[in-house]
Amino acid sequence: MIRVLLIDDQPLIRSGFRALLDLEDDIEVVAEAADGKEGLALVKEHLPDIVLIDIQMPVVDGIEATRLIAADPALAQVHVVILTNYGMDEHIFNALRAGAAGFLVKDILPEDLLHAVRVAARGDALLAPSITRKLINRYVAQPLNATAGTGLEELTNREREAVALVAQGLSNDEIADHMVISPTTAKTHINRAMTKVHARDRAQLVVLAYESSLVAPRSS
Known about the structure:
Number of strands: 5
Largest sheet: 5 strands, parallel
Strand order of the largest sheet: 2-1-3-4-5
Structural class: alpha/beta
Number of helices: 10
């Protein structure tokens, strides 16, 4: 059972998401909050698998709440998915740096929301729904060669290549096709990279790939 906590200052949004999620046999909404401060207290109380949190809220906003959740060792198994009304591209990198496992717009299709919750819960992809791929791609330029910057020195060339592809939003199957390897081998490269750089999840790999210049945000 995937346990979800909703944090949004709009009651209609919370009720709509809750009605959708509660219809699923493998998903349970354990609590909901109207602001980030209340939400943080509920996260510590319920220890959900997934927190769906609005990016703009009173008291404590979504990015700050995400940073506080990610910084707490007791919440290491909690995955945060940021929600927004707009495709605010400039906030994606800040959300990922704060520790978010995903970034979704609120007009996402129901099936994409359900898929995102399941994907984030297993830590198997960063931003799997196609609607968010368009956002992350705005930040990704072409990967550099296999010479990595600070933080990636322990990785093999193939592991660096896999990390660069993760940062472009590719799934394990797509990474396997690109590298001409099996999906299992692709996942092994990614998991080994996460272990070597002590990444919490694939989102942190993306942040590290940006900050080490393995991939780079577009300048325009």
